[in-house]
Amino acid sequence: MAPKGKAGTKGKRQIFEENRETLRFYLRIILGASAVYAVVNLVIFYPAASAWTWLAFIFSSVVYGTSYRSMNSMAKPSFTDDGSLADGGIDLNMEQGMAEHLKDVILLTAMVQVLSCFSLYVWYFWLLAPGRALYLLWVNILGPWFTADSSPAGQEPNEKKQRRQERRQMKRF
């Protein structure tokens, strides 16, 4: 059963601690997936490693680096002159925030990278990321913009016209 009343807010210190733990968790995921991929594809199966193997490793490193660095800059705390916490940074664990999408990109890349130890064709699953971005772009920005009513909001049909239209429709049936 959900608690009643106003949702609790987090303090600066709690956001700071949770952000630190979140960044540590995703750094472990990044390092673990990269290590598995490097050991399997670039050490054990080095003779079979192609340029695509190296390209995939570089691509995933760039995606990891940009996503993690963005999350790190979002969660950057600020301190006062006496060393106390002034701001804990943006909450990385809030729902529907940009950090949530960055975390999804890191997780998708890690899964694809580890599964690509079996086949490089698994990298096609990474096309889910731009597909999701296009979906969010359409649902949140383009769709409402294209389907917005272009008539001014102040012009509502008067009652006479509305009754006349209703009568016409009733005659048709």
- Please state how the strands of the largest beta sheet are arranged side by side: 1-2
Overall shape: it is flat
Helical amount among residues, as a percent range? 55-70%
Count the beta strands.
2
For the report, how would you describe the main beta sheet?
2 strands, antiparallel
Structural class given helices, strands, pairing? mainly alpha
What's the SSE pattern?
A: HHEEHHH
What is the arithmetic mean of pLDDT? 84
Rg calculated over all Cα atoms: 26 Å
Counting DSSP H or I runs of 4 or more residues, the number of helices is 5
Low-confidence stretches: none
Q: What fraction of residues sit in β-strands?
A: under 5%
Distance between the termini: 50 Å
Description:
This protein is mostly helical. The chain contains 5 helices and 2 strands; from the N terminus they run ααββααα. It has a two-stranded antiparallel sheet. α1 packs parallel to α3 and α2 (51-74) runs antiparallel to α3.
